[in-house]
Amino acid sequence: MDYVTVSSIMDVMKEYLPASTSVAVSDSNKFIYYQPSKLVDLQIRPGDSFKSGGVTGKAITKKQQVSEYIDSEVYGIPYYAMAVPLFNQAQVIGAVTTIFPAKPSPISTKFFTIKAEDRWYPVTYNNIIFLEAESRKTRVQAVSGDGYHKMNLTELEFLLPNDLFIRVHRSYIVNVNFIQEIQPDSHSTFLLIMKNRMKIPVSQTYSSHFRKALNY
Length: 216
Known about the structure:
The longest helix is centred in the N-terminal third of the chain and has 11 residues, at 3-13. This protein is α+β, with helices and mostly antiparallel strands. The chain contains five helices and 15 strands.
């Protein structure tokens, strides 16, 4: 991967990312691209090595997605980051890391508001069954019904508490309390049967993270 190619790709991709997102791209040893946001800047430069305690090196070493809160000891400011390794067949050749301001405490907010038809309804986290990406909005399926939130799935993933919600697919986040069954779907993926009988796939990208999060 070279800087010009990566920069051209990221110029397109940043249109689909929240404005608060900083993005770093690396090869297997060092960063080759970095675009800070106005809210968080880790002062990364192309050519910089990974710092101990960051998520990029962990994702490359573990060969799986890593999402963590990082305290100020690593880059001088606290932040929340998600790194996804890039593969060429079975070999890890780099990673894409998205960086957000420090994730809010799950006790600071316990609900958000969705729109159904021409009305808005507050929905508590405990009553949300799953969230599904639809265009640049998110459909929220709750016990009381469904509606839409203006934020996309990535933005809401940043806000939702990790002890209740897990990303299982690029199009789905589920509330673990509403998972009724986990069925094998192929060699490395799963199918979730939710308590409302909805079937939600766990994609290969998220399967390792899913198994680790649910301790099996």
